[in-house]
Design brief:
Elements: E1 6-7, E2 13-14, E3 18-20, E4 22-23, H1 26-39, H2 55-58, H3 65-83, E5 87-97, E6 113-122, E7 125-137
Antiparallel strand pairs: 1-4, 2-3, 5-6, 6-7
């Protein structure tokens, strides 16, 4: 049996490793941990109120595209720097869905949702670039 590095997210059943599906590669584990970190709002996790990122908070900022994009990017870098020091972010590409059909985006206050395409490396695998896409907002 291969060594397990943790539970696979989203949870699922897997008879190979026991009741829950397991992660058995460092790259998959890092990708899962990064997704969980970025999708957790600061203050959301009991006993660790500083854990998480500010991505969800940024969606309520004034909708000035360059400003919001830089805040989203900064939120990724800050969270990873603090909570995942073994991960290096190479690039964050942001695409935003600012408005619904026929609605002025600037009157809404902030973007409705944003998709972040994140390229990163793990310190023990420096030549192996990983990709993660997450969507913030539009729940």
């Amino acid at each position: 049996m291969e060594e397990s590095l943790g539970l696979k997210i989203p949870f699922g059943r897997d008879d190979k490793h026991g009741y829950f599906a397991q992660v058995d590669s460092t790259a998959t584990k890092a990708k899962t941990n990064l997704m969980m970190l970025l999708m957790t709002a600061r203050g959301e996790r009991p006993m660790m109120p500083e854990y998480g990122s500010e991505l969800k908070e940024v969606l309520f900022e004034q909708n000035v595209p360059e400003h919001v994009d830089s805040l989203l990017e900064d939120a990724v870098y800050k969270a990873v720097e603090r909570w995942m020091p073994t991960v290096t972010i190479d690039e964050v590409k942001i695409s935003r869905n600012d408005a619904e059909e026929g609605v002025d985006a600037y009157s809404l206050g902030g973007p409705l949702s944003a998709t972040l395409d994140i390229s990163f490396r793990i310190s023990n695998m420096p030549n192996d670039q990983q990709e993660l896409t997450i969507k913030v907002g539009d729940y």
